[in-house]
């Protein structure tokens, strides 16, 4: 991964290019001539390519969850995609994010440690504007959140963590719990500066406003589930889900406890509306069916049995005399 520059370093580079102190062609020439690649042992690559691909797949799924959730909450067009999945020292991640931003720090039981969701101020304030009844236009983002705004942000991102749990459920069933919302990354010390972290960047578009949401996940926290972040594990999980007989037995048990409506049809007849209105207690209605005809029994509105009426323990009951099979035949 290329080195992440801070905003001050980016400004200095642009200033040097514009003043002529640095020539772009020289940089390109230097890059093409370079044969040796320097390896920094402080930036150890602790996640394999296979594990990075797995995290990409997880967050692509999470992005779809967030798109649906934010679209419903903000009542506007929202698009969220995975922009990149990188690994870098924690110190470098802290230097790469703005000095004034929105940091949701949350626990992930039963794993020991915390994850961070960093929301670019453009995105955060656009959300707040929509939730407060505004149009979602770009607001002043260089200020701190008020107490009311902090409370609103806690509510919306607390529910967003439920989708985060769903996206990871094939790997681990953890319980994310929002701990605190910070605004200055210098006050957030989750792990040692040289600890490798996985940083997943989501590109977000809310109406006409664009920005980023970054997830910082320390390797030391993910370490217990690292073996599960592989393609082989995903394939085995999907295969085992299809073949597990206990799941079928669970479904049967749930269906056996379900309630259905059972009704008996005694017969048919046709009368005039005037006759219906003049009916009173003691009147007799003549049916078209014979007294010897079998009575139809329906389950969920579909005829399944034939039966005959009677009494059982002093209550009106129906005795099943035959069953209608799936092909319409009778099983006497």
Topology-level CATH name of the largest domain: Chemotaxis protein chec
| Total domains | 2
**Can you say what the CATH homologous superfamily of the largest domain is?**
CheC-like
Question: What is the count of helical runs?
Answer: 10
CA(first)-CA(last) distance? 74 Å
Order of secondary-structure elements: HHHEHEEHHEEEHHHEHEEEE
Categorize the overall geometry.
elongated
Low-confidence stretches: none
Beta-strand level of the residues, as a percent range? Answer: 25-35%
- Integer-rounded radius of gyration: 33 Å
Give the name of the CATH architecture of the largest domain: 3-Layer(aba) Sandwich
Strand line-up of the largest beta sheet = 1-5-6-3-2-4
Classification by helices and strands:
alpha+beta
Give the total of beta strands. Answer: 11
Helix content: 25-40%
Provide the residue-averaged pLDDT. Answer: 80
User: CATH top level of the largest domain?
Assistant: Alpha Beta
Largest β sheet strand count, sense and barrel closure: 6 strands, antiparallel
Keywords: Bacterial flagellum, Cell membrane, Cell projection, Chemotaxis, Cilium, Flagellar rotation, Flagellum, Membrane
Domain Flagellar motor switch protein FliN-like C-terminal: 254-324
InterPro entries: CheC-like_sf, Flag_FliM, FliN-like_C, SpoA-like_sf
Family: Belongs to the FliM family.
């Amino acid at each position: 991964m290329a080195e992440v520059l801070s905003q001050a370093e980016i400004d200095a580079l642009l200033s040097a290019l514009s003043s002529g102190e640095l020539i772009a062609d020289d940089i390109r020439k230097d890059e093409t001539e370079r044969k040796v690649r320097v390896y920094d042992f402080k930036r150890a690559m602790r996640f394999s390519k296979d594990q990075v691909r797995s995290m990409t797949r997880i967050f692509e799924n999470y992005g779809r969850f967030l798109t649906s959730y934010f679209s419903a909450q903000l009542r506007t067009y929202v698009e969220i995609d995975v922009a990149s999945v990188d690994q870098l020292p924690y110190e470098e991640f802290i230097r790469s994010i703005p000095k004034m931003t929105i940091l949701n720090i949350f626990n992930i039981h039963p794993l020991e440690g915390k994850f961070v969701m960093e929301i670019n101020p453009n995105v955060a304030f656009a959300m707040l504007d929509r939730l407060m009844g505004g149009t979602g236009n770009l607001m002043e983002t260089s200020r701190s959140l008020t107490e009311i705004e902090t409370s609103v942000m806690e509510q919306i991102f607390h529910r967003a963590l439920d989708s985060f749990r769903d996206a990871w459920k094939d790997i681990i069933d953890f319980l994310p719990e929002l701990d605190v919302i910070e605004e200055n990354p210098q006050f957030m010390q989750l792990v040692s500066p040289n600890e490798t972290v996985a940083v997943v960047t989501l590109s977000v578009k809310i109406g006409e406003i664009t920005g980023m949401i970054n997830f910082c996940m320390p390797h030391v926290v993910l370490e217990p589930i690292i073996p599960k972040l592989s393609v082989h594990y995903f394939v085995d999980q999907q295969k085992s889900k299809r073949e597990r007989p206990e799941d079928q037995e669970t479904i049967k048990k749930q269906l056996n406890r379900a309630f259905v409506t059972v009704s008996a049809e005694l017969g048919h007849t046709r009368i005039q509306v005037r006759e219906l209105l003049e009916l009173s207690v003691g009147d007799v209605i003549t049916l078209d069916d014979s007294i010897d005809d079998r009575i139809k029994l329906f389950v969920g509105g579909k005829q399944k049995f034939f039966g005959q009426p009677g009494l059982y323990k002093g209550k009106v009951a129906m005795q099943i005399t035959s069953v209608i099979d799936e092909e319409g035949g009778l099983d006497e």
